[in-house]
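Following the same procedure, the fold was encoded as tokens, giving this record:
***
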Amino acid sequence: MLKTKILVLLLTVVCFTSIAQNKHTLPKNSKQTVSEPTQTRFYYYYFDALRLKDEGKLDQALELFQLCTKIDSTDAACHFEVGAIYSIYGLRTEAINSLEKAINYDPSNWWYNGQLIALLTNNKLYRKGEEKIFYQNVVKALDRAIQLKNHYPNKPDVYRILGSLYTQLNQLNKAIDAYNNLERITEVNLELSITKYQLYLMLNKPKNAFQELDKIVKKYPYESKYKVLLADQYFEQNQEQKAFNLYQDILKTEPNNPFVFSSLANFYKKNNNPKQTKIYIQKALRSEDMDFKDKTMILKNYIESSLKDSSSIQETESLIKLLIEKHPLEEDIHGYYGSFLDFRKRKNEAIQEFETMISINPKNINAWINLLLLAEEEKNFNNIKLIAERALSNITNNSLLYIYGGIGNFKTSNFDKAIIYYKKALELLTPENDKIKSDVYEQLGDVYYTMNDKQKCFENYEYALKADPNNVSVMNNFAYYLCEEKKDLKQAERLSAKTVEKFPNNSTFLDTYAWILFQQANYSLAKYYIERAIENIKDEIDGVIFEHYGDILWIMKIDDEKALSMWQKAYNAGIKSDILKQKIDNKGWKRD
């Protein structure tokens, strides 16, 4: 189904990589450059390398392919296979060099050239700061594509590649020429016409652009969707009267066309006519000729814009309810309504909609996550635990659900179960989720500390920092607990210093650093940092910081009255420990 808004659609380079990696290339080793025994040895290693490659033993396969290139350095297939494996490993430069060698010995090979072009233009293989190298390699890819055109002048993919490369290099007229050649080989089609339409607009040639869409309309005169597409583009380019006339023309032959209704809703919305906007959106949503996905897209766009305008909130809700009435068993619309109700702070009603989603499809992960987020917002940890358990009875392979299960059980003192959940989450997390892994290890460490298992706590903090060396929350907790245990205060100081360096205005981090300095009898610096911590306290009053400040002042013997007032402030802020009470009642403690 065509949307009324054209997405930027550039015909991308044909992806040869996956094809080439799974394709066995046979060596062209019938040359007279090697003796028959040598050739036999070559084939033995080559086919053994192919076997290892098929088994996924790429390191061993690479060694044998490289050995083959030493036996016969002119064999293109071997160089290609070496390049293909380097490509899998993300070794861009090595892969390019090997593929260029393959092409040097077999210049017209479609697969070799295609793999090289795909590799040269794969921007995921380029790091930040390598933009110049990427540009140079796209130019190199274009040169290869031009060579391919000489070998395959009637192959459509050649012109798709050329069009894409010329576009990347901002040679738009040449890109259009390439697509025109493609059109001559194939035929007029929507994808090509849209691509050229976009290119002409980029060249500021709207007349040529609309001629491309006209070609599609003329080729398919009885397909109204192309007329709607053309009208939508007139609308996008601010030729509103042309768009409106074409919409009306379509309605003469198709008075119930839902896509025209949707487009007219946009038309009236832009022209500040909310009454007509609502009428045409309702017509589109009630239509039997528009599928549910298109309806939800229309509604989603309308909701996103309406939420900014409080005057249309009521109308938005009535439209959502209309769609629910028409499609009561569609999960997504209940999800939209739940999110809408959450936005409107109607939490209980939102929960009902997410529960409805789950009753329709118990494996709907989005519904479960939304329920968990609502429970988290309320800090209802018992509810988090119960929701996670319900979710995991239906979905067993989602790490986030196990993390929430861990949180819910930890906060409700079910420590053994929390550990089980966190460990299961770690099993499911992949290497690219290192930051999440770090958080889970941190939470495991917190559980163990609460259980008074300091060794396992510190082990998990170490794992957390290994997964994410920049996790300042772990650094702070690790440093503070080391300090509390009077263990390795130098390591505690190093960890804490990093947090203060990264976040110099964070009162919690400043307090930890001050307390570690205090434990090392570095009182002057401790006082400096604790006072900075107090200066940077935001909304929540942290009684621990006041207690620490009082202790530092007391031990320095510089202001006993202020020390007592800080302890009292800490007590009033909720620190009700026996030790603090004794300090207040005894007006301090005995000093040397």
